[in-house]
């Protein structure tokens, strides 16, 4: 309920010097307000669902919400595959509910695009019947967590191809860009790319892992793909132009950091003096600016 909504409406009716019909209208308005106001204690959805193509859906994480990254849902003739990362227990449960609302087919596998070291709170929440498919490096990171993983795991080094009916799913490890062991998902029949956190669209995300120059090179490679749609790690579904826009931002961001390094400025000075034109800064960047600048400063300092 909106704060005070019930009290205001009933008080207005008691004080109203009006006829019976007007009182009825006021009562109906108050009831509708109660019915459609957010219920106390009901959590807001972590994802909104966008149809990408036939049997393909994007679960778009609210940039200000608890879900850290988008997910990609692939419906094959016999089962469902989900791709993504940073799945909290609540996020895994919501993805499962989303799938149930779309299709009666079971969730069979989760393509884990990456798993950062020392992240025991994520990627352990899927039922044991769901298999995880991930890179060898991400599997190593998962095994290094204290939490026990109860899922069957299929890992690979560089490239893996999954064929289900007429659907081909190509998995390629792209490193050392966003993070070690990071992979992307490409569907050649539909020319759809799930870039995961290698790319964001018109919204900022924390940048605190990986290698700046490698990140830009990975994006350049992806721009050579034939794509009609790109599902990013954060933000709405885009296309090849959106992928390029994010690369331009990264290049501007890293160039600005390099300028401070060449002037001999410390990480703290770089945070304080950092400047890009407003039109080049994605929404919500101020929320992640300090952490991202400090990471880029350290990485670029080591690579000089």
Helix and strand layout, with pairings?
Blueprint: H1 5-15, H2 20-36, E1 47-53, E2 56-61, E3 71-75, E4 80-84, H3 89-102, E5 107-112, E6 131-135, H4 136-143, E7 153-156, E8 159-164, E9 167-173, E10 183-187, E11 192-200, H5 212-222, E12 229-234, H6 240-262, H7 267-273, H8 285-303
Parallel strand pairs: 4-5, 5-6, 6-7, 11-12
Antiparallel strand pairs: 1-2, 2-3, 3-4, 8-9, 9-10, 10-11
Helix pairs in contact: 1-2, 5-6, 6-8, 7-8
Your description of this structure?
This protein is of the alpha/beta class and 304 residues long. It folds into two domains: 5-36; 47-253, Ribonuclease Z/Hydroxyacylglutathione hydrolase-like (Metallo-beta-lactamase, Chain A, 4-Layer Sandwich), CATH 3.60.15.10. It is 36% helix and 23% strand. It has eight helices and twelve strands. The chain has helices spanning 5-15, 20-36, 89-102, 136-143, 212-222, 240-262, 267-273, 285-303, and strands at residues 47-53, 56-61, 71-75, 80-84, 107-112, 131-135, 153-156, 159-164, 167-173, 183-187, 192-200, 229-234. The strands form two sheets. The protein has a seven-stranded mixed sheet. It has a five-stranded mixed sheet with strand order 8-9-10-11-12, covered by helices on one side. Helix 5 (212-222) packs antiparallel against helix 6 and helix 7 crosses helix 8 (285-303). The longest helix has 23 residues, at 240-262. It is globular and about 60 Å long. The termini are far apart.
